[in-house]
Amino acid sequence: MLLKDKVAIVTGASRGIGKAIALLFSKEGAKISAVARTEEDLKKLKSEIEASGGECLIFKGDVSKEDDVKKVVQETVDKFGRIDILVNNAGFGIYKPVVELTAEEFDSMVAVNFRGVFLFTKYVLPYMMKQNSGVIINISSIAGTLGVKNMAVYSATKWAVNGFTESIMHEVREYNIRVASLCPGSVDTNFSNVAGSNPPSRDKVLKPEDVAQTALLIATLPERAMLSHLILRPTNPR
């Protein structure tokens, strides 16, 4: 069990990549605090984890709201005594040309995709710094490394996450805290993939479990080693 007795907070944990990470990390021994907006799906996740002998706290909340974030962090520490891993996974995209995108849609993507990463990082780091150890994995996107038509704002939020990750890595590595951005390409989830005339084949794109395995690799490297930025692509998506 590669994560025995570790404590992990996973945001956007009720489905897709976040759920796959929560399940795999629990299987490897981690105690999970799962955060998402859909309580019913969170309860299903909790049941799956506990049926396999794991421990799971669930939190229905909004990662962009400071009080919700503070509650998750404090109750995780109160229950488990520490925080070893933070997976900032919550995010979503609205695919439209910029001229059609509303200011409210802009604000909502920035709030969830970037502000949420900032808030959880801000409130988790003091515990990791006190422990002199920890891993933060920010699930970004390949869209955070290149521009994509009709994804300007989503792409911009993921560029922001990558820049934030790189800067935080330099701030906290002296505390033996490792900070990484994981940038998947097309993943077979409920999250909207890029529409196009020749979309990738669903049976060839990445699966949530592939991203979870990569996150596990990042989290379980020897403490002296760190992956700070990783792009994960389908081998042959067509």
TrEMBL record:
Which terms does the UniProt entry file under GO BP?
A: monocarboxylic acid metabolic process
Q: Which SUPFAM superfamilies match?
A: NAD(P)-binding Rossmann-fold domains
Q: Which Gene3D superfamilies match?
A: NAD(P)-binding Rossmann-like Domain (3.40.50.720)
Q: Which family does it belong to?
A: Belongs to the short-chain dehydrogenases/reductases (SDR) family.
Name assigned to this protein: 3-oxoacyl-[acyl-carrier protein] reductase
Biological source species: Candidatus Chryseopegocella kryptomonas
